[in-house]
Design a protein that fits this description.
CATH class of one domain: Alpha Beta
Strand order of the largest sheet: 1-2
Strand content: 5-15%
Number of helices: 3
Structural class: alpha+beta
CATH architecture of one domain: 2-Layer Sandwich
Radius of gyration: 16 Å
Number of strands: 2
Shape: extended
CATH topology of one domain: Potassium Channel Kv1.1, Chain A
Order of helices and strands: HEEHH
Helix content: 40-55%
Length: 70
C-alpha cells in the first residue's frame, strides 16, 4: 500500500520554478521558433502539455537513434 502526502501549493510552486528556469535558460533543452521569435523551453513540459509536441519529440528521438558521429 502506498502512502500519500498532501502538499498544497506544490504544483503552483513547481510551475513557478520551471518558468523561472525557462526565462533564465537554465536546463532548457529546446528552442521553438515562431515567426523569427525564439522561445527557450523544457521538452518535458511541452510534451506533457501537447500531444502534438510529444509525438514530434518521440519521432525526433527515434530518428536520431541511427545517427552516428564519425
Amino acid at each position: 500500500m502506498l502512502d500519500t502526502m498532501e502538499a498544497p501549493g506544490h504544483s503552483r510552486q513547481l510551475l513557478l520554478q520551471l518558468n523561472s528556469q525557462r526565462t533564465k535558460g537554465f536546463l532548457c533543452d529546446v528552442i521553438i521558433v515562431v515567426q523569427n521569435a525564439l522561445f527557450r523551453a523544457h521538452k518535458n513540459v511541452l510534451a506533457a502539455s501537447s500531444a502534438y509536441l510529444k509525438s514530434l519529440f518521440d519521432c525526433l528521438t527515434l530518428c536520431m537513434k541511427d545517427v552516428q558521429d564519425v
